[in-house]
Design brief:
Number of strands: 19
Helix content: 10-25%
Low-confidence stretches: none
Number of helices: 10
Radius of gyration: 22 Å
């Protein structure tokens, strides 16, 4: 019987355009790109040249700090471009896919006979270890430092999030193999939601998190099950598809970076799911899916933590949703804030929409106000179900007080834990950016 943890803090934002559980078939144009920025904390060193021929599973780049951490090509084909930005920063490595796919054969493995070090070596060799993250610092994991525990969250509860139970359907064997492999490295916790089917998996300690968003955040689950203290390390998988990547590799010996992506948002004509490969060009998914004449924001991810992109962008390594919402830059509201705003969402009762009961909203991307002084109002604490003082931690990061940051629990948090606080913040601060900058500084100080 799984443990149940009831959470009361948080906020569920109900938006229009949730994906219907049906698959749409896509025809790829053959353009793929692996983006180093999808792997937080990785400084890439490209190990291929333009014109090289690669197979699916061959490395495109490695982590300069830990060269054994390779990042595999999702497809076989020809490396057509290494795109660089300012100061020669690697933006992505593009591959033109072959019509007939070729895979590097790493050989299937019996996970029951492997130990933890052999599992890590298999993931490093195949170029998918970098998809595992760690706390502290919320960056791609260091393979040389073994964790005290591994946390996997199979609960997606952000607005319009894809349903992982729909993705794992018919792949239960791969998911179990992935979980068993992780359990060989360290004690593994699996977090899931109420009424889920994940209670039946073996070799892991399953915990049900009953509460509003962000109960599905892996950082929230770590905080309630086995908090991270200074000097300790845990590995985290907030994107449960990574467990499928691991299971497929061990069962087949091949790198298969296929994932089920929800095309969602109020601007999407027919929200549904599609099977895509990591790095696939989004034009294959977005063609004719929305009104091109509308001012829209295309988000690589969900509305709280995703990144703005275009139809010429590429599917992120950890992206389970492509969301399209109104940009809002063409909105013309007569009388502005004086209107009662019955169709817009607010956590306070400053809009009259609270009189309409629960309903789905079509929110746009406007911030609706400029940055202003930070008021200690306790509004972060209402949506942050962690045993930390969010407002005091943010102030410590802004002022650069490292000792106070450590005392207030910065080792336990990641930027996504502050996504809802950023949404409700009346000061309009970019909390996720602030937390990321604080973690990066702390990481350098402790290096």
């Amino acid at each position: 019987m799984a443990n149940v943890i009831k959470l009361h803090k948080g906020l569920d934002i109900h938006l229009q355009g949730k994906a219907e559980e049906k698959l749409i078939q896509l025809k790829s144009n053959g353009q793929y790109a692996l983006v180093p920025d999808d792997f937080e904390g990785v400084t890439p060193k490209v190990v291929v040249k333009e014109g090289d021929i690669v197979k699916a599973g061959d490395a495109l780049f490695v982590n300069k700090q830990y060269p054994e951490v390779r990042f595999a090509s999702p497809v076989s084909g020809k490396v057509c471009e290494v795109v660089r930005g300012e100061r020669r920063k690697v933006l992505c490595v593009k591959v033109q896919a072959d019509a007939e796919q070729q895979f590097v054969d790493y050989g299937p493995k019996d996970v029951a006979t492997l130990d933890g070090r052999q599992v890590i070596e298999a993931l490093l060799e195949a170029g998918i270890f970098g998809y595992i993250n760690q706390l502290p610092y919320a960056v791609s994991a260091n393979p040389s430092v073994l964790p005290k525990a591994i946390f996997v969250s199979a609960l997606r509860d952000k607005p319009l999030a894809g349903n992982f139970e729909f993705e794992v359907k018919d792949e239960e064997k791969n998911f179990q193999t992935g979980l068993t492999a992780l359990s060989k490295i360290a004690k593994t916790y699996l977090g899931c939601g109420v009424h889920s089917s994940f209670e039946n998996y073996k070799d892991v300690q399953t915990t049900i998190f009953d509460g509003p968003c962000p109960a599905g955040n892996v950082g929230v689950q770590v905080n309630h099950l086995d908090p991270v203290n200074k000097g300790e390390v845990v590995w985290t998988i907030g994107d449960p598809t990574v467990v499928l990547f691991i299971g497929r590799l061990l069962n087949t010996g091949k790198v298969d970076l296929r994932r089920r992506v929800a095309l969602c948002g109020s601007e999407v004509k027919a929200p549904a799911y599609a099977d895509m490969l990591v790095g696939e060009e989004l034009s294959t998914l977005l063609s004719n899916s929305y009104d091109a004449d509308r001012h829209v924001r295309i988000i690589n991810g969900n509305v709280l933590t995703g990144r703005p992109t275009t139809k010429d962008g590429f599917l992120g390594a950890h992206t389970s949703e492509i969301t399209i919402i109104p940009e809002g830059d063409d909105a013309d509201e007569m009388l502005g804030w004086i209107l009662p705003r019955l169709k817009q969402f607010s956590v306070s009762r400053s809009y009259f929409s609270w009189l309409c009961g629960k309903k789905d909203y079509a929110l746009d991307a406007r911030v609706k106000g400029g940055e202003r002084h930070m008021i200690m109002s306790g509004e972060y604490d209402k949506v942050l179900p962690m045993d930390i003082y969010g407002e005091y931690l943010i102030k410590a990061i802004i002022t650069g007080d490292i000792d106070r940051q450590e005392a207030l629990g910065i080792y336990e948090v990641s930027p996504e834990d502050f996504a809802l606080a950023e949404f409700v913040d009346s000061s309009k601060l970019e909390l996720q950016r602030i937390v990321r900058e604080g973690l990066n500084i702390l990481r350098k100080e402790n290096a």
